[in-house]
Design brief:
Anthranilate synthase; single chain; nine-stranded antiparallel beta sheet; globular; alpha+beta
Length: about 325
């Protein structure tokens, strides 16, 4: 499906208040749109908060193992230095740099999907899974909400919450993304407000517990916004929290630094229930490749970034969230 076809189909269902599931890749080249009935026929499983199309499964076999094989620090540093060169030149002031980490596990892709605990989950044709903690946009009662997530720390560190909230680099990065998302929402809505600023959530994983920092931003949509669902979604892409600012130039630099297409990683998926929308950023992402299973992760780079700290954060985000 091409992007214009996706827009027209989304608008068609929106006008008729017909529920559907959508998936859009980072490069906007391969969007998918299914009615809820079609999704099951295409081996697509999803959970968007309380909306899902599968029954839970309980696994009684051994605890999940996750052996990780990240890229070497020298390879990461080469890309980091390219990004920093562009930051110092004024081409970007925040860029989300990501890499794949090869993983080995005693669970299948489908088993990992069932096992993972997250508000947003997606399984696509045994090709990739997502267990995302981050909302992209939510539309309810003619208001659009976004919840950019910037700032991650090991929850077991002494005074972890205080450390992350008082870290000047993390604060600046979060402020930048909040400002970017405010501008993005202003493209499709009015009366933009930051309704919650830098609140903390905890994530339990197979490796360690993490604290992550988010904000809530709200805009007011015109009536009958459902008639233009397709345009609303596409105008907001790619998601600011996983690209950077300024967005267009930063995406160009991402391509130079990462050298491989992200495809559905850092794209979005979500549902229109006939009245409202809820959606997620495709992070916490595992895909099948010719090199085996790969977990893709990264973090935001600014002028104050330390390459060792950023490399460590990228690796810390390689996990499966379990209860």
């Amino acid at each position: 499906m091409i992007l214009q076809e996706f827009i027209e189909k989304a608008n068609f269902y929106g006008v008729r208040h017909t529920p559907f599931l959508f998936l859009i890749d980072f490069e906007l080249n391969k969007p998918f749109l299914y009615t809820f009935n079609e999704a099951a026929k295409h081996t697509v499983l999803y959970q968007v908060i309380h909306i899902k199309n599968y029954k839970e499964k309980v696994f009684t076999n051994e605890r999940p193992k996750l052996d990780i094989f990240p890229i070497g620090y020298k390879e990461y540093l080469k890309a980091f230095n390219l990004v920093m060169k562009n930051i110092l030149a004024g081409n970007t002031y925040l860029l989300n740099l990501t890499f794949p980490t090869t993983i080995k596990t005693n669970y299948s892709l489908l088993e990992l999907f069932y096992l993972a605990q997250a508000p947003y989950k997606f399984y696509f044709k045994d090709q990739f899974i997502v267990f995302s903690p981050e909302c992209f946009v939510k539309i309810q009662d003619d208001f659009i909400f976004s919840y950019p997530m910037k700032g991650t720390i090991d929850a077991d560190l002494p005074n972890a919450a205080k450390l992350i909230l008082e870290n000047k680099k993390e604060e600046w990065e979060h402020n930048t993304i909040v400002d970017l998302i405010r501008n993005d929402l202003a493209i499709v809505s009015k009366n933009i407000t930051v309704t919650r600023f830098r609140f903390i959530t905890e994530i339990h994983t197979n490796r360690k517990n993490l604290l992550q920092v988010s904000s809530e931003i709200r805009g007011e949509l015109p009536t009958k916004w459902q008639n233009n669902i397709g345009e609303i979604l596409v105008k907001l892409l790619p998601a600011g929290s996983i690209s950077g600012a300024p967005k267009q130039k930063t995406v160009e630099i991402i391509k130079q630094a990462e050298k491989i297409s992200r495809e559905y990683f850092t794209g979005i998926f979500g549902v229109f229930d006939g009245k409202n929308i809820d959606s997620a950023v495709n992070i916490r992402f595992i895909e099948k490749t010719q090199k085996g299973l790969q977990f893709r992760s990264g973090g935001g780079i600014t002028s104050n970034s330390n390459p060792i700290h950023e490399y460590t954060e990228m690796i810390n985000k390689v996990y499966v969230p379990i209860s």
